[in-house]
Amino acid sequence: MGSEQFKLTLDQIDYAVSVDDIQRLDGGGWGRKVIGQPRALEALEMGTSIRAKGYNVFVNGAAGTGRRTAVMQVLSDFKPDNVKLRDLAYVYDFHAALSPKALSLPAGQGKLFRKDLHSFVENIKKLVAMQTDSADFKKQKDELVTNWDQEENSRLAKFEAALAADGFQVVQVQGDEGQSATDILPLRDGATLSFDDLQARVEAGKSSQADFESTRERYYRHMDAMRLIFVDLKRGRSTMEDKLDVLRKKTLRPLVHSEIEILAARCEDEKLRSWIKELERDLLGHLFLFAETGAPPADQHSAKVPLSRYGINILTNNGDVTIPPVIFEAHPTYANLFGSIEQHNETPGDSRSAYLKVRPGSIIRASGGFLVLQAEDLIQEEESWIALKRVLRTGKVEIQPQPGPFGPPPAAKPEALEVDIKVILIGGEMLYDMLYQGDPDFQKLFKISAEFDATMNRNDESIKEYVSFIRKITREEHLRDPAPDGIAAAIEHGVRLSDHKNRLTTRFSQIADLLREADYRAAKGGRSAIDAQAVEEALHARSWLSNMQEEKLADMIVAGEIILKVSGTCVGRLNGLAVHDRGYYAFGMPAVISAQVSPGESGVINIEGESGLSGEIYNKAVLIVEGFMRSRYARDFPLAVSASICFEQSYTGVEGDSASSTAVYALLSAIANVPLRQDIAVTGSVNQMGQIQPVGGVTEKIEGFYHICKKAGFTGTQGVMIPRQNVVNLTLSREVMNAIREGRFSVYAVATIDEGIEVLTGIKPGNADEQGKFEPTSFNALVGDELRTMAKTIKEYLN
């Protein structure tokens, strides 16, 4: 029977989806939003329901598996029985203007309090206006003002009389800038003279120098006295204004207190009631702000303080909200997440309204609900990531001033807000493990991992869901209706993407892309439905648009630039298979693996490793090859061989162990001097016991070698040898399946090195007896005899 016993039949390879099954399972439904992720959905539902600290959720999995859709579905379905949301707000701190005070009020109370506070301010304005117009207040005010005016006039009159008695008079003079100033001038003959005029009189002999000096000395004494009088009068007027302020407060205090009591009675929050008491004290000290006319006391700069200090800045208004808020933050910068403080040119007194400049970020807007972030985007914003963990630890968020484009950050520093937030991070497959192992805080804060699988079982239920999903996409996006054979072809592509003929991919974004492209192909072909032909054309076009590099390498092989044979036999060389993955397109390509041997003590030399072109996994594979050689052939004599293994014409890095079985075949061929078939390419890793282990990318590898054979010309004997465990991973294209059906190409499945040797050489491998002796004329006997001869050669040489 020979190698035929290892050749796979079409039934073993076929993974096709039946059109009859599609018609049987097609209910025409729109399908569920999330398919094939029961484990992830359970984790999401648990994570959203548990509000305990640390039960934040990390959604991890491959892109396109419906992670965001699942999050949206679970959050939209989450309707807790008792939603306790809060309104978050800032008010003016009367003790520290640049440190706005944080408030957390029951949902809806913030808006009501703002309305009540506005009414309160308007009422105070009315009370102040009423007091100003009241007869009693006017009478007492007029008495105070009149008494002071009389006192002021009396003192000025006495001062002017004293000046006149000494020959001086108070005058108003114009300064250089046109401003009026008070001065004192001497009197001569009933008229005032300047000191320049007096000096002229002295020079003219009309007055003595002694009289001039005496007049000037008295002038300075009178000027000092006048300054003291003006200072005293200013102090007295200030005292009078204080008395007026006391009078105003005395009159308005009970009225203001009554309004305060009404305002406070509607508030249950203790912190807010405490702020209202501070508001009362501050307001009584700034009653002048409420007057339509008049000025504040002259020694106060508060005139520029706006009435906005008596307001509230509501950051979140949840009065009409019945479900927890859900915020998706696509750009998690520090300001977007935590909030910001408006920065602009400040005017005097602007600090009193600093609380109005605070703007909420996503964390504040999501308080009481959920904040959804893309993990990779968040981690790149290192400052945001560190601060977010701090919020999740403390339950408080601080809005830090950030420097702007026009200057330093604002000086305001708002009080921290208490938030109740659950964060859902969406990230890649390995990111959760990396963060969990590398960040102790992450372990405590993200206790729920919702892991999305890239594949699901292929059965009637999953195919039914696939059909519903396909119909959902075509209806939502107004594509052509999918025909049953078109649906079957799309599902077959889902099988191919899963790399397992009994599974389906859950990366539905790629299926949706295929439907869109197939709709385009159907339109170009003038067809009214998305049929199998449209799907095949879309897949072919997608491959053709991306396979330029694959075609160029194939042309180089066919032209002989890359030395690789797809027919005949050779000693010590074999076609291995590698996958070139460009991210958006992967293809298989054969590569020659050669081995050379001679007697020696160097063991197996990895040429790629010696030249620094191999990775750690490939280096391990070469050591396993040497271990296999010792365990099988050199039990009663030393392994005295120098062997080199090389990837021919490879100038880039080599990684992975999928070529280790190929290296074993090439090495055994070189030792036994038995040629290997070049029309069969090989993939599969090997362990030290000689068992063939499964590898990845078998479909791409088979199709890659098939295309090379197609370009070089089919011989009818060409094929690929794979590990037996990889049979379930075969999801070959229609073209390759047809070639296998017609006998132009073959796939062999082997479980051991011995089975592979039989396929590649046609020689029975031979079993070993209890003493480790192999059957005469068997392949293993040839290898063992040659290794024994090499050991004797080395022994004789050394002696």
Largest sheet: 7 strands, mixed
Strand order of the largest sheet: 23-24-22-21-26-29-30
- Large-scale geometry: elongated
In percent terms, what proportion of residues is strand?
A: 15-25%
- Helix-strand category: alpha/beta
Average pLDDT for all residues: 87
The total count of helices amounts to 27
- Rg result: 47 Å
Sequence stretches where pLDDT stays below 50 over 5 or more residues = 293-304
Report the end-to-end length measured between terminal Cα atoms.
Answer: 48 Å
Helix content: 40-55%
Could you tell me the number of beta strands? 30
Structural descriptors:
single chain; 799 residues; alpha/beta; seven-stranded mixed β-sheet; five-stranded parallel β-sheet; 27 helices; 30 strands; 16% strand; elongated
Write the layout of secondary structure elements.
Elements: H1 10-13, H2 19-25, H3 38-49, E1 57-60, H4 67-77, E2 86-91, E3 101-106, H5 109-133, H6 135-165, E4 168-174, E5 180-188, E6 191-192, H7 195-203, H8 209-265, H9 270-284, E7 312-314, E8 326-329, H10 334-338, E9 340-341, E10 358-359, H11 362-365, E11 370-374, H12 375-380, H13 382-394, E12 396-397, E13 417-418, E14 422-427, H14 431-438, H15 440-445, E15 448-451, E16 455-457, H16 460-476, E17 481-482, H17 484-498, E18 503-505, H18 508-524, E19 529-530, H19 532-546, H20 548-558, E20 569-570, E21 573-581, E22 586-599, E23 603-606, H21 607-610, H22 616-633, E24 641-647, H23 660-672, E25 676-677, E26 680-682, E27 685-686, E28 692-693, H24 698-712, E29 719-723, H25 734-741, E30 746-750, H26 753-761, H27 779-798
Parallel strand pairs: 1-14, 1-15, 8-11, 11-14, 17-19, 21-26, 23-24, 26-29, 29-30
Antiparallel strand pairs: 2-3, 2-7, 4-5, 5-6, 9-10, 12-13, 16-18, 20-25, 21-22, 22-24, 27-28
Helix pairs in contact: 2-17, 3-4, 5-8, 6-8, 8-9, 17-18, 17-19, 18-19, 20-24, 22-23, 23-27
